[in-house]
Amino acid sequence: MMDNCACGQTTVRDEAARWFVRLREPAVSIEEHLQFEHWLNEHPQHRDEFQLLQGLWSAADLLPAARLQALCETPPARNKRRPLVRYAVAASVLAVALGLGLFSGLNQSGSYSAEFATTLGERRHVALPDGSVIDLNSRSRLQVRFEKGQRNVELSEGEAMFNVAHDSDRPFVVESGSGKVTVTGTRFDVRRGASDTRVVVEQGTVRVQGREAPGDVFVALTAGLGTRVDAHGNVAPAYAVNPAELTAWRSGKLVFNNASLSEVVEEVSRYREKPLTVSNDQVGQLRLTSVFKSDNTEALLKALPNILPVAVRTHADGSQEIISK
Fold it and tell me: Which one of 82, 208, 214, 244 has the largest count of C-beta atoms within 10 Å of its C-beta?
């Protein structure tokens, strides 16, 4: 756990630099995310210092490594009081940039590309060089491509939560299947299923459209709204959702609120080595309301026959099927 900024000789700026570095490491626990959110909300200065770091990081996109190195060198004594250049923070940013190989992925035009993926049962927190943050769910994969005028992400598999840093000059575009989501800065979840893409907005506004649709044909979503894009690029009208329930996977939970058993099976299969299926449409249309842990889907299978008129059949290959009792 990070030391409180009021303890010892540490400063708010030191704490912000430590969090900035830690959140860009590959493995960050849920507990650490909660600690960071608590620290961020303790005082406005905490958020100000952290946003300053994000700004410096973004500015590094346009600076050659040698120039940033020069900015981080210890200044002459006569310049120690210059308030504009924050040498300790800049040095922290440089350390992170060099440690992650930032300058090998960025050129002087601000371009950046990377690919991120998770395995069965893994969740991953990814910090991007523009200050945006992505949380990847189990069995997910995406590609990131930043260019001077636009930030592009392709979600090729799974689910991701996006917390997008505002930049009106560079829209953030997420493509998933036949759908496309465009924002300048907001917080939203995109889930790519077998036959459609679901979009849920937690904060801000997004524009959802078919990938091949004209620019003026879209569905606008605000906080608490969601939609789906089918395989043909048709976008459903916006409908009310509970973002906290639909993104509970970030804390290791599966929340089902009057969900069809077909939807439950598709979601649970993401967390199992072998697929889970339903025997027919009649079983698939049964509804379930419950909460389970994503790392213990066996508990769900044991509970189902006590909740619904179903049984679980195990096949020779280890896969399982939900059938009528």
Answer: 208
